[in-house]
Amino acid sequence: MAISDHDYVNFSEEYELNYHLRKVDKRQTEGNRDILVVMGKELKKDLDKARLTHAEFHPYVSKQKHRLE
Questions:
Q1: Is residue 5 very low, low, confident or very high in pLDDT (cuts 50, 70, 90)?
Q2: Strand, helix or coil for residue 8
Q3: What does the alpha-carbon distance between residue 55 and residue 69 come to, in Å, rounded to a whole number?
Q4: Partners of residue 8 on adjacent β-strands
Q5: Quick one: DSSP state of residue 50?
Q6: Which of 27, 45, 58, 62 has the most CB atoms at less than 10 Å from its CB?
Q7: What is the reported pTM?
């Protein structure tokens, strides 16, 4: 089964970034969303991928949540 566009993180959509912030009980602020974008770039580089799924991104955010307010 192919992966749907809904399975990928869209880093330009606030509601998707807010979803990941809620999952780790962090505030839904512009600063936190900016940090998530940076985290996404880091993980893409580490995994050598152009796009990330929510399933790939969430564990990374969970491990790095100390960077968020």
A1: confident
A2: strand
A3: 22
A4: 53
A5: S
A6: 58
A7: 0.93
pLDDT given for residue 4 in this prediction: 80
The single residue listed with the structure tokens 């992966």 is 3
Q: Which amino acid is at 15?
A: Y
Structure tokens at 33: 């969303």
Phi/psi of residue 27, each to 5°?
A: -65, 145
As a residue count, the chain comes to 69
CB 11 within 8 Å of CB 61: no
Q: What would the two tokens of residue 15 be? A: 């509601």
Backbone conformation region of residue 48, classed left if phi is above 0, alpha if psi is from -120 to 50, else beta: left
3-state secondary structure of 28: coil
Query: Residue 39 carries which side chain, given as an amino acid letter?
Result: M
8 A C-beta contact, residue 58 and residue 43: no
